């Protein structure tokens, strides 16, 4: 079936059903908006398995998403949406860019969690946006901005619970949403160690893409261990 678009981590294909898309997870890993880029055998499989199981967990916990079913080791069927060009980030603990940009101390807790909106636009390097920017750029309405932030906090609560059962701590993550045919907002894209920052509750060891970003360990081994820990929540 026809390739609709190809991103850095996934390929999106049309299916016979215009309301359904097939997403194929690629054996590719990037960091810093593509500045660092590598082929990694088995990575697509792991992200697809993990992301599928996270969407299933979210559904069981009352959070709807685009996920329909996993159709192979590297593919899943999802509901087609028009992606809202925002990366909605939730931070429970200060790490990464917020430490560098705003001077928060690494490890500082955010209570309540911090929600941020970034413009999903590679050419502009995904800059952070204020609500007024979102309105002025016609990306979303005021009501939608509120709904996106609320939905992101719900996802956060469910993921915190899930990772806690796995002996892990959710530091932060980013998600994407889309609008379906009727204009309903739906959680879309991917949730995996590519899109979250996760630490071991006891050792503080990274269970996310930071091992690749900072070249501190094997990404495949780390994601495999994460997937094994997911047994605890199935
Ligand atoms: N349900 C969906 N319907 C339409 N597009 C989607 C859906 N889920 C994810 N996408 C889009 O698929 C594209 C490919 O994903 P990815 O490789 O992660 O892209 P990127 O390089 O932008 O991170 C992204 O533009 C993402 O927003
Ligand atoms: Mg992506």
TrEMBL record:
<dbReference type="InterPro" id="IPR001636">
    <property type="entry name" value="SAICAR_synth"/>
</dbReference>
<keyword id="KW-0547">Nucleotide-binding</keyword>
<keyword id="KW-0067">ATP-binding</keyword>
<dbReference type="InterPro" id="IPR018236">
    <property type="entry name" value="SAICAR_synthetase_CS"/>
</dbReference>
<dbReference type="Pfam" id="PF01259">
    <property type="entry name" value="SAICAR_synt"/>
</dbReference>
<dbReference type="InterPro" id="IPR050089">
    <property type="entry name" value="SAICAR_synthetase"/>
</dbReference>
<keyword id="KW-0675">Receptor</keyword>
<dbReference type="GO" id="GO:0004639">
    <property type="term" value="F:phosphoribosylaminoimidazolesuccinocarboxamide synthase activity"/>
</dbReference>
<dbReference type="InterPro" id="IPR033934">
    <property type="entry name" value="SAICAR_synt_PurC"/>
</dbReference>
<protein>
    <recommendedName>
        <fullName>Phosphoribosylaminoimidazole-succinocarboxamide synthase</fullName>
        <ecNumber>6.3.2.6</ecNumber>
    </recommendedName>
</protein>
<dbReference type="InterPro" id="IPR028923">
    <property type="entry name" value="SAICAR_synt/ADE2_N"/>
</dbReference>
<keyword id="KW-0658">Purine biosynthesis</keyword>
<comment type="pathway">
    <text>Purine metabolism; IMP biosynthesis via de novo pathway; 5-amino-1-(5-phospho-D-ribosyl)imidazole-4-carboxamide from 5-amino-1-(5-phospho-D-ribosyl)imidazole-4-carboxylate: step 1/2.</text>
</comment>
<feature type="domain" description="SAICAR synthetase/ADE2 N-terminal">
    <location>
        <begin position="3"/>
        <end position="228"/>
    </location>
</feature>
<keyword id="KW-0436">Ligase</keyword>
<comment type="similarity">
    <text>Belongs to the SAICAR synthetase family.</text>
</comment>
């Amino acid at each position: 079936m026809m390739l609709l678009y190809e991103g850095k981590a996934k390929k999106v294909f049309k299916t016979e059903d215009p309301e359904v898309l097939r997403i194929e997870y690629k054996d590719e890993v990037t960091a810093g908006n593509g500045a660092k880029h590598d082929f990694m055998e088995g990575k697509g499989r792991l992200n697809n398995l993990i992301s599928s199981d996270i969407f299933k967990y979210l559904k069981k916990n009352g959070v709807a998403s685009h996920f329909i079913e996993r159709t192979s080791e590297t593919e899943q069927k999802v509901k087609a949406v028009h992606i809202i060009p925002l990366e909605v980030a939730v931070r429970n603990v200060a790490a990464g860019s917020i430490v560098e940009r705003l001077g928060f101390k690494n490890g500082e807790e955010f209570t309540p969690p911090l929600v941020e909106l970034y413009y999903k636009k590679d050419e502009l390097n995904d800059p952070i946006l204020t609500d007024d920017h979102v309105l002025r750029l016609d990306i979303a309405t005021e009501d939608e901005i509120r709904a996106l932030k609320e939905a992101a906090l719900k996802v956060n609560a469910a993921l915190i619970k899930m990772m806690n059962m796995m002996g892990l701590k959710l530091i932060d993550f980013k998600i994407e949403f889309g609008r379906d045919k009727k204009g309903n907002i739906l959680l879309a894209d991917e949730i995996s160690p590519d899109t979250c920052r996760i630490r071991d509750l006891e050792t503080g060891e990274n269970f996310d893409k930071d091992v690749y970003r900072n070249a501190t360990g094997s990404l495949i081994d780390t994601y495999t261990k994460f997937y094994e820990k997911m047994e605890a929540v199935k």
